[in-house]
Write a structure and sequence with these properties.
By secondary structure, the chain is mainly alpha-helical. It has 23 helices and nine strands.
């Protein structure tokens, strides 16, 4: 049984965790089910639960979906728990932030001397920001496997600092199953750091690395990534031209400065701690590993500039997320470490700053959004998509190409039905497969030749692409199938 002190400690840490989750969510403009990247991640789970879904969009969904075990894991959880998918995704979101909080505290406990400094680090991590021109944010306002993989991998960093290398490797393996590319850079970081920290292991690591290279050669020549050692041709590149985060050599100067500013912060922080005699065990190894990431990025640049498909798809520029993390650890040390009082004041100030920023985002920038929305928030769209789920799984749908942005979720995510085009996500998925890119290009061309929201244009697209329904908030002279407030679903046959 718990005594009074233990119960008080549990209550205290639970309260701190709740504050952390709320601050992360407010700084992400609220939790939104089905938003943004979930336009991709929900359909792959639906496919696992019901293989009959998405007969038309299967190739597009599989372009990235076949590269991870995320969908298998979530589908299994959906089968063995009583939770609906909206509630399951929210539970996974809470789990992600809980793991991130625990990993921040563990890492901070290894990194700082002051008792309150780890809480200052956790508070700093609630300040969501984008990693310039990489397509990644430090936090998302919905469950994203990349965020879960990041939290698990950060715990692996803590295990590395605690000399528990076996646990670190196991955690990286779990994270890699959920999101391979996000985890890959943690693997590089900690592999280089381990080689520095454990010189006696270098021979064995070299042998393992040689075997790993042979495995990688097989993977990209005959295995799951076969066919990707090709150069993207102009037609393929045209489809993803607006995804400028894929091509660092086209970044503006401010993006380079924003990402590279982490380097002098890390160097200055490390040197200051060394002069003060405050370096912790394996800290130098982590810094060397971070510069190993920078070296990987620089070596990757020529292949990306040559538009080698695999190089573009790996998105190596996201190593700057890890450099951003290490720079944040040093900035928090400069601000918070020293006396416990100083660390407590720093933690409080960072928490206040995060709360103020989050309040501005939630109540000024997005006043109509609830902080936690466990279902689709556009009521008319939600009702229309509920009706759409009752139509045959083979039905084809036409909608505004930017419907996911307008209504908060895509037809695929909200109705579990194939849609003619969802511009933002379809063009992003096009980088993984040329055939998918050509499909997107063909549909973009078709939309440029006819008005999709006119009777004649919609019917022309329906005949050409075997479509059954049009969903829109515009008045179109077509037979009405269903109406939900401002949203109308029209028959195209």
């Amino acid at each position: 049984m718990f005594n009074g002190t233990q119960a008080l400690n549990i209550a205290r840490w639970t309260l701190l965790l709740v504050v952390f989750i709320v601050l992360c969510t407010m700084n992400s403009a609220g939790y939104r089910y089905g938003a943004s990247d979930q336009a991709f991640y929900l359909p792959v789970v639906y496919r696992q639960l019901d293989p009959s879904l998405f007969p038309r969009d299967r190739a597009l969904i599989d372009a990235q979906g076949r590269l991870t075990l995320y969908d298998n894991v979530v589908a299994t959880l959906a089968r063995v728990t009583p939770l609906s998918l909206p509630h399951l995704f929210f539970a996974l979101y809470v789990l992600t932030l809980t793991l991130l909080f625990m990993a921040a505290l563990r890492t901070g406990a290894c990194w700082y001397r002051a008792r309150w400094a780890p809480l200052a680090l956790a508070a700093a991590l609630t300040l969501r920001h984008s990693i310039a021109k990489t397509g990644a944010n430090t936090l998302e306002g919905y469950f994203h496997p990349r965020e879960l993989a990041f939290a698990i991998a950060l715990m692996a960093v803590a295990m590395f600092l605690m000399r528990r290398d076996g646990r670190a490797a196991s955690l990286l393996a779990v994270a890699a199953a959920l999101h391979p590319t996000a985890t890959a850079w943690f693997v590089v970081w900690l592999t280089v750091a381990t080689a520095v920290a454990r010189p006696r292991w270098r021979g064995a690591m070299l042998a393992a690395g040689s075997a790993g290279i042979l495995l990688a050669v097989w993977i990209v020549t005959r295995g799951p990534l076969a066919g990707r050692l090709v150069t993207m041709d102009p037609a393929w590149l045209a489809v993803i031209a607006d995804k400028d985060y894929l091509f660092p050599l086209s970044w503006p100067l401010d993006a380079w400065l924003t990402n590279l500013i982490t380097v002098p912060i890390i160097v200055l922080g490390w040197r200051a701690r060394r002069r003060a005699g405050l370096l912790v065990e394996r800290e130098t190894a982590l810094v060397v590993g971070a510069f190993g990431l920078l070296a990987v990025f620089l070596c990757w640049l020529p292949f990306d500039a040559a538009h080698l498909a695999l190089a573009v798809q790996l998105q190596v520029s996201r190593v700057f997320w890890l450099l951003d993390l290490l720079a944040t650890m040093y900035l928090v040390w400069m601000l918070a470490d020293g006396t416990n009082r100083r660390a407590a004041v720093a933690a409080l100030l960072l928490t206040i700053a995060s709360a103020a920023r989050g309040a501005y985002i939630c109540f000024v920038q997005f006043p109509d959004r609830p902080i936690f929305a466990l279902d689709l928030q556009h009521r008319d769209w939600r009702d229309a998509m509920a009706w759409a789920r009752q139509t045959p799984a083979s039905s084809g749908w036409l909608a505004d190409p930017l419907h996911a942005t307008r209504y908060g979720s895509s037809v695929r995510a909200a109705a579990q039905r194939d849609v003619f085009l969802e511009r933002l996500k379809d063009t992003a998925l096009a980088m993984y497969d040329r055939d998918v890119a050509m499909r997107v290009a063909d549909r973009e061309l078709a939309l440029s030749s006819v008005a999709w929201d006119s009777p004649q244009g919609a019917r022309d697209l329906a005949r050409r692409y075997d479509l059954d329904y049009l969903v829109t908030d515009r008045v179109v002279q077509l037979p009405v199938a269903f109406r939900a407030g401002a949203i109308t679903i029209y028959h195209l046959r």
